[in-house]
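F.,

This is the one I mentioned.
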């Protein structure tokens, strides 16, 4: 009986110790789980906040461009129109041939500038991104390049004809514009190809030029490229830019829709 009386307290102590250790393990496990849930919630809130900021930024940018477009049309455009009328009047009243030719030339320059400003004003005030499909928006950009006749450009549009939210359309359109501008200005390319494919879950944009290429490590910090990459990542997309000297540049963008 003496040994039994000694063993019982020892067993009970060991049992309580084991239960105590199990309790500590469960507490730590529960604490880590709640901490992870809290961190996931914070991350989710941060992502939602970032996307909201991006959406607001795009909206503000659009309103700003519309304001600039109206200012060009209502203010600068009217002043140039008035200047054009003055030069026409001077050309009519002046009898000296060489002065008349100079005035006519000035009037021609003003009229050309006025036409360009009107086109710019229209492009800024028209809410094309809201009203047109991405296929139509990219096609319009390609038509502008074809009119310049600086290089060939080919567009393979999406066949699914799915609608995209405003932010996705805006970002993909700006990427197309930035890529085309860089290809013509810096790469001296002769051909640009644009492919768009939209599935149930994502939109994929592929751009390629046959220009002189560039060193990614030296050029990747450029404002245009950096902004494109940042905007893609904010929407949870992928950004794959590749370039080799004399072999051209390719860019593949995938954005969730």
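My design for it:
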């Amino acid at each position: 009986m003496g040994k039994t009386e000694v063993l019982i307290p020892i067993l009970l102590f060991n049992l309580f110790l084991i239960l105590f250790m199990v309790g500590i393990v469960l507490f730590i496990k529960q604490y880590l789980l709640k901490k992870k849930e809290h961190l996931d919630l914070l991350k989710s809130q941060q992502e939602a906040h970032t996307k909201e900021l991006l959406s607001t930024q795009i909206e503000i940018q659009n309103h700003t461009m519309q304001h600039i477009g109206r200012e060009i049309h209502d203010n600068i455009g009217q002043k140039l129109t008035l200047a054009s009328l003055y030069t026409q009047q001077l050309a009519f009243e002046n009898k000296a041939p060489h002065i008349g030719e100079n005035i006519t030339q000035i009037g021609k320059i003003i009229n050309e500038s006025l036409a360009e400003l009107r086109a710019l004003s229209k492009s800024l005030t028209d809410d094309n991104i809201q009203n047109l499909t991405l296929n139509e928006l990219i096609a319009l950009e390609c038509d502008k390049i074809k009119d310049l006749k600086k290089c060939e450009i080919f567009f393979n549009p999406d066949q699914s004809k799915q609608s995209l939210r405003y932010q996705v359309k805006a970002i993909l359109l700006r990427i197309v514009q930035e890529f085309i501008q860089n290809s013509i200005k810096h790469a001296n390319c002769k051909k640009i190809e644009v492919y768009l494919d939209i599935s149930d879950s994502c939109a994929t944009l592929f751009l390629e030029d046959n220009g002189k290429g560039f060193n990614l490590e030296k050029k990747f910090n450029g404002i245009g490229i950096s902004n494109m990459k940042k905007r893609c990542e904010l929407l949870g997309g992928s950004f794959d830019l590749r370039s080799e000297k004399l072999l051209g540049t390719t860019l593949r963008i995938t954005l969730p829709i």
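The helical segments are 2-93, 97-125, 128-131, 134-148, 166-185, 216-219, 223-234.

Talk soon.
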